[in-house]
Amino acid sequence: MSAITVLDLSEEMHRALRARASQNGRSAEAEVLDILEKALRSDTRLKIGSELAAFGRSFGGVELAISRDQTPLKPAEYE
């Protein structure tokens, strides 16, 4: 698991963070994780797969006949 350190956090922001965490019944660290999760997993973020699909549909779409090769894989040989 990764960790970050936030430098130069003002006392006012630290107090506000602790108060918000207390109101939500969690630690300051858990509150920061929740804030980051909401900010980074926003519904407004660009979803590249959806954008590419919409782009393809704007040109009438394409039907691809894709089938998976069922040939068994050969294990690697090391000497």
Distance between the termini: 37 Å
Largest sheet: none
The total beta strand count reads 0
Beta strand %: under 5%
What does the model show?
The protein is an all-alpha fold. It has a domain at 11-58: Arc Repressor Mutant (Orthogonal Bundle), CATH 1.10.1220. Helices cover 47% and strands 0% of the residues. It has three helices and no strands. Helix 1 (11-23) crosses helix 2 (28-40). The two termini are 37 Å apart. The mean pLDDT is 89.
List keywords for this structure.
79 residues; Arc Repressor Mutant; mainly alpha; 47% helix
In short:
With 79 residues, the chain is mainly alpha-helical. The protein has helices at 11-23, 28-40, 48-58.
Give the arrangement of secondary structure elements:
Layout lengths: L10 H13 L4 H13 L7 H11 L21
